[in-house]
Protein 1
Amino acid sequence: MRRLILSLTIVLLPLLLGGCRFSWTLNGAALDYNVYKTVSIANFPIRTALVYPPLQTIFENELLNYVSRNTRLQVIDPPADIQIEGEITGYELTPQAVTQDALASQTRLTIRVHVIYTDNKVPDKSFDQDFSAYKDFDSSEMLTDVQDNLCQLISEDLVIQIFNATLGDW
């Protein structure tokens, strides 16, 4: 009897599960690749009072690389199924953690990005949104010494936020 039940289970289980589709990704991408095939990522010009020119390249490269690594979308020039564009709207330094002698022991670098996400397949998913991220550094350090690393780390944070809001469909 056990052998019969086991044999039936082995034969029927694949038939029952054949109609089911399970989809799970570790990167969070929730795209239907039957619908979405292409993405366009435009330049993100810097529109801030304080300008650090390498930031544009750092951010754009991080965004492009992250999308390429975590989706199967082909990156093309517009028009595409999905278009991501925007601008860097904030690059600010603010003192943090004031000490007893009224000096800041930490300084915060905050970067803000305005993103325009256009979904040409499902227009209701399109949006304009601002994203921001920051990192603190010791005020005894010169900004010029830590700026490249901070911009890279902040860009990584921003890209994850943008990816989750757009292609990750969170």
Note: The helical segments are 2-17, 54-70, 143-165.
Protein 2
Amino acid sequence: MDEKSRLLTIGQFAALHGINKKTLMWYDEIGLFKPAAVNPENGYRCYNYHQSSLLETILLLRELNVSIKEIQAFMENRSAESLKRLLDEKIEELDREILHLKAVRKTLGNHRQNMKTLLNTNLSEIRIAEKEERCLVTVAIDPGTSYDKTVERITAETRKYQLRRLHDASYGSMIRVENLYQSRFDDYDGLFIEIPLPLPAKPDDDSLPAHGTQKAGLHIQPRGKYVRAFYRGDWENMSLKYREILNYAQKHRLTLTGFSYEKILNENVADRMEDYIVQIEIPVLL
């Protein structure tokens, strides 16, 4: 007898494919996957090796979250074309999920680095730090923009880039260096969102001008040396920290350029806004 035609019990066949025999019983009951034979005396289901590839296809589709209804439709019209079409759809979904998980992984890494900074850094110190180039999406705001409206705008912008939640990305605010030199410390230009992974550009008339070059329609935060400082306290006194930074730059003969990038490090663990610790980074020309 052909080895592939040898009958296996439902338990043996289930064990062969690493599933519970109740799954095979259910597939039989709904007409999705029938046994090769049924013992007329006791009603026991039997399967053979010829059926293995078909069962594995079903199990693969289930692992890809294909519904039973979709699989049944495929089984009724089984062909290379229909399977390819079904797999194309699921591969696209899987690719999107992989990109999302990679984005979440990078954002989690950023949050962890923020916690390390809080635990291991002298937050009263102003120093020079080296940074890599980053691509940012920007959202324009003005002095009359309320906090609620700010959150709404940045959340909407996040969704445009297929990020599921606000915390799938790092975000903060930007103010031009010329505003700092003119003591206009409250004159913010906009918000920024750091997209965890490169995404296709989208037209955006409200985007802030890029510092240096423009990449894929996004604002470029340039690589290089930055003055880095931290502020904690009432938001109305942020100007005191900026004056301290300006004095530091003058003392060390540093020219500040581009934008100041502000980012809250401890928003996830602070209960009050006045306990927020803001990291301030400004590019410098040495």
Note: Residues 80-120 form the longest helix (41 residues).
Protein 3
Amino acid sequence: MNIKVDITNIILKTERLVLRPWKNEDLDDLYEYASVDGVGQMAGWTPHKNKEESLNILNMFITEKRCFALEYNNKVIGSLGIEMYDENQFSEFESKAGCEIGYVLSKDYWGKGLMTEAVKRVIKYLFDDLSVDIIFCGHFVDNYRSKRVQEKNGFKHYKKIEYKTRYDVIKESWVSILERNDYMNNII
């Protein structure tokens, strides 16, 4: 069963990042990374064509209150959303409180361990503060960077699915899970 999420006034910190709700002032930073070829496609969407498109997404982030802005050195470099998982596709988990996470990072910051750090902090928030039992996270089969972020944070491949992207392409994806017991057994 999906949990209710509202990150209003929630600020999470890591060694290098601040994870916080989105603000109107983040538009330029969002457009800067979301308009770069190769970034959005890894998450199933095409590069933003203009700031108006980014503004629509920014307004959605602000209104829905489910997505963190990832701030690094006072600049937003990505996002990490806490979404609803498909309860019909994963009905075997109906008795467990759960959610799905998804993330995207500016190409300029790939390979620095920042997303692994952000995901680790959100996992802690979800298990410790929101008392979830299970977290879902997917990645396209060919997205090795996302796969590594998930592996480093203890996620295990669970099920291969076909995912329809926002640009109407069907891509083979892995859905991975992290359950509370596995998290509790691996806390450092």
Note: The chain has a mean pLDDT of 95.
